[in-house]
Design brief:
Helices cover 26% and strands 25% of the residues. It has helices at residues 2-16, 112-123, 214-231, 247-260, 315-318, 322-335, 340-351, 355-364, 373-392; strands at 26-31, 44-51, 67-73, 86-94, 102-109, 132-139, 142-151, 179-184, 191-197, 200-208, 270-274, 283-284, 413-420, 425-426, 432-440, 445-452. Strands 1-2-3-4-5-7-6 form a seven-stranded mixed β-barrel. It has a five-stranded antiparallel sheet with strand order 9-10-8-11-12. The protein has a four-stranded antiparallel sheet with strand order 14-13-15-16. The chain is globular.
Amino acid sequence: MRRSVALVLLFLSVVTAVAQTGTLPIIYIETEGRQPVSSKTEYLSATYFIVDSVNSEYNIGSQESPLPLDIRGRGHSSWRGNKKPYKIRLAAKAPLLGMESHRHWALLKFYEPTVAGLELGKIMGMDWTASAKPLEVVLNGKFLGLYLLTETNRISSNRLDIFEQPDGNEDEELLPYGWLVEIDNYREDNQISIAENSKWTLRITVHSPDSMSQAQKNWLTDEFKRINSAIYAEDKTGSTWEQMIDVDAMARFFIIQEVMDNSDGFHGSFYLHKDWTEDSRWVAGPIWDLSSNQREKTDYTFRMKTSYSFTPHWIGELIKDDDFCAAVRQAWDEFYPSEVDSWMEFISEHLSPCQEAYETDKKLWSYANQNSLSARTENLKTALLANIEWFNNNLPEGLNNAIDDIDFADKKVVRVEYVSMAGLRSSKPWPGINIKETFYTDGSTSTSKVIIKER
C-alpha cells in the first residue's frame, strides 16, 4: 500500500512539476476541460481524490478513479488575493480527513489563528464549531500550496444540528424558528438591513433558508429591530434583550473575540442561529473567520484602532449590562486558567506538522513575512497569552458593579469534570457531547455543553 501511494505521489509530482511536499494530505482537483475557477457564484464540474502518505486511511478516490465534485471561489477580500480560497461541494457525502461526513467544504488559505480560534470555540463550548485540517492542493495540475480543509457553517445533522426554516415559508407558526444568519460587512443578495444607529447599518445575511418569502423578510427585519432597540435601551437594568438572545453564548462569543483580539468579531462573520425550542432565543455562533491582531492589548478590541474604522457594535452596549458581565465572568472562570495550557499545547501540536509544507507555500506565494512557521506559532501563542492576562485583569463589570452578589475575586476553579452521554466522568473531555461541570472554591458549580470530535 505504501509503495503504491509513493508511486502515485512520484508520478503526479512529475506530471505537475510542482513542489508539493507530501508531508500532509494532498487533494487533487481537476475541473472539466481544466477550466479556471473564476466565479464565486457559479460552480464548475470537477473530480477529486486525496492522497495521504502518512495516514492511508484518509485516502479517498484515486488518479484512476477520481470522485465527482463541484468547485467555485469564495470569500470577499480574500478572493481578491493571489492565492484564492474555494468552496467545494461533493457529489456524495464523505468523511474527508476523518472529519464528519458531509458534502460541503471550504478550502481556506492556511492561517495559524484559524487553527487556534476554532479550537478555542470548542473549548468554550459553543453549540457547534467547525473543524479544519491542513492539506496541500493541486488544481488542474498546478500546485497551489498549503490550505485548510474546513467544515462550513450549515444547518445539518453533522454540523449545526437545529431545526431548519423552510425556503419561502409563509407559515406564521414556523417563522420564529430555524434560522442561520450572519451579521456582515458586505452587501449580499439574501440579506436584510436595518439602521443600527445613526452611523452604522446592520446587514444581516441569511444562510438558511436559502431563499426567503416576503413574510420571512418582514419577520426577520422586525425581529432584529426589536433586538437592536432592546440592546441600545438606556435602562440597562431591564435586560429585555435577554428574552431574545442567549446571554451565555453571547458571553462566550465575546471572550473568544477578545482572546483572539479579532477586530471583525462583531461586524463581519458574526453568525447567529435560532432553533425550535420552548425558550427559543438567538444564539451566537458558529464562529468563523477569526483573525488575531497580535498587538499589545490596551483595551477591549472594539475600542482599539485598526487600519479600518468601524462604529462600535452591540458589544459596546452589552458590557454595560450586569447580567451579561456576570455571564462573561462565569464562562471565564471555566476557561481560565484550567484550559489555557492544553489550548497552547493543541496549537503547537497541530501546527508543527505543517512546517515543511509552510516553507514551500512561503516560497510559492512570496510571503512578505519570511519567519518560519515555528517562529510564527510561538509569536501567536505569546500574543494570545498576553491577551488572556489582559482580559483576566479587565473583566467587564457593568454599570452597577454588582454581579449577582458573587465575589469573583475569591472564587477560583477547584476542578473540571466532563460527563459523557453514557454518564462516564473524566478530567478530559470524551469524544462526542459532554456536559462540562466546573467546581469552585465557594462550593458552587456551573455546567455547559461541550462537543468534541475525534481527531
